[in-house]
Write a structure and sequence with these properties.
- It is a single chain.
- The protein is α+β, with helices and mostly antiparallel strands.
- About 20% of the residues lie in helices and about 30% in strands.
- It contains four helices and 13 strands.
- It has helices at about 1-10, 20-35, 40-55, 135-140, and strands spanning about 70, 75-85, 95-105, 110, 115-125, 145-150, 155-160, 170, 180, 185-190, 190-195, 210, 220.
- The strands form three sheets. An eight-stranded antiparallel beta sheet has the order 9-5-6-7-11-3-2-12, with no helix packed on it.
- The longest helix is centred in the first third of the chain and has 18 residues, at about 20-35.
- The chain is elongated, with a radius of gyration of 18 Å.
Length: about 220
Amino acid sequence: MALEQSLRMVLAPPHPAARPFLIGGGAAALLGLIVLGNWLFWLGVIFVAFCLYFFRDPERVPPDRPGMVLAPADGHVVSVGMAVPPLELGLGDAPRWRVAIFLSVLDVHVNRMPTDGTVTRIAYHHGKFVSANLDKASDENERNALAIALPDGRDLAVVQIAGLVARRILCDAKVGDSVQAGERFGIIRFGSRTDVYLPHGVLPLAREGQTMIGGETVIAELGA
């Protein structure tokens, strides 16, 4: 059963963001096969295989329990601590618990909503591209931040952060969207970080070093 689940994840259909890369790699392979030789053909094939793996978008099943805050991405937790949400979101300057998840190039990079709610603000901040596993990446790196209002009036933030290799953040969510926990909302290419700033008074259940499964792993309970 474990092997079957692993194969399903590896062989999952790619995210739509993979299309230009797959077309480019396929064209290179075809050109190599017809004109330029085997070296370009195999280079194109390897590139296509890498893109199919990197952009894989497996289905996820969120817990059937209300009031959960879920991991917004696969990867491992590199930081759990108090921090101020990105100022551009207008959520105030009071520190709250932040859970930071680092995604290596081997992780699924599709981002998922951590909880039910309404997107109230989206703000893009241009910045650096230091390694996303460093704590300063939350403040210094290029990022896309979303503020989400919960049904009970509280709020949280989820932030897509570019990394050392990542140069492109894609976000499909829009201000005013009603979202559900586990719902896809974007992707980051290639290697990155995703932070969640919990509502005031909510304690994290995640711990540093813990492995996350986006849309499934519980990182906090809103009632706690």
